Amino acid sequence: MTPWVLGALLACSRAPCPGRTPAAMVTASGGDSAPLCADLARSEAERKAGLTARPPLAADGALVLEYPVVSEACITTAPLDRGIDVVYAADDGRIVGAGCDRGPDDPVRCVRGTKRVLERLPVVDCADLVGGFLALDGPVTGPTARWFGRYAPLSGAPCDADTAGTVAGSLDVEILRGPGVSDEALAQITRGAQAYWAPHGLWLRAAGEPVAVVSEHLLSGKMHELAELRAQRPDEDERHLMRELVFRDLRTFVAEHALPVREHTVVLAILPWIGEPGSIAQQVFEHLRGLTLSPWGGALDEDLRRALDLPDRFTPIVLVSAAEAASLPTGTVDVTAAHELGHALGLPHAEPVGRLMRDGLHRCVPTLTEAEASALVGYSRFR
Between 20 and 30 A from 37 (CA), which of 157, 170, 180, 364? Predict the structure, then answer.
């Protein structure tokens, strides 16, 4: 990606904006929105002109720099005689970085994955904008804002306040919704995942609106069905027969959704259940909250890969049970979807208590270690 080194400027007329200038809407991660009157700089010359070509700033004004392609935006505030806020937004409007009250003595700041940069006079809540949205000509709309915006910080103290790994990027998420999963239940899971990953710099982007699927569960099998299979194929290993029975619906599901391979993408299927109530699967996988199939990290054993007829490369699939998410014990911090997304990107289970990738329930907000974050960055499995 080619860096852009740009001068900084804020200039604006009174709101409402004249017809020649678009209105900008800035939304913080918690959902509060503020309109601004913004000049728009689209050409390279306009972006570079900065302060030398524009009048002084207005308190309710801003300049929005728009790039022809998503790139690494590098902003210098060296020409300025006072501080400004510099807000970086991706092509879906997601604010992926903010430099607050940056003045002439601050170094150039570069942020990857930028489509627009907003520059304005400093505001108190500048840091709260990261994870929010920037839009022109009206409020922010779209599936990313709907399902991964307006998230609240996870409740609970951090398990380890001194350890926090950081990544920087975005991941496309194809959301699938099972029968009976309400908007509220869906948003609780998707926003909860974003709430965990936001402080670590990973932004989840909805590839579109949730797609309805007919599956209420994907692992099944009844004892009478297993008995019928034994009678039909008495010479086959019973473990093979059980695996075939339990995973039959999942095999059909992954054939439809895991291929073709989509780069920087994870399929997130939120179903009422993962294991059918009363089935062999539910007996074997009691209280199964999440399940991930990923080509990375070594979590997928070869027997299961063969049972599902999966190739070496496929799009990772994350399954989350809405029913199990709704019935977690009081005081539990729900990081099921965040944990499963870690598996989807290649992170294995971790043993120490208080780690995101530890299997089990958490009473505090678990840690993503610096080593795990460095591994994710090195894998390059998100944008």
Answer: 170
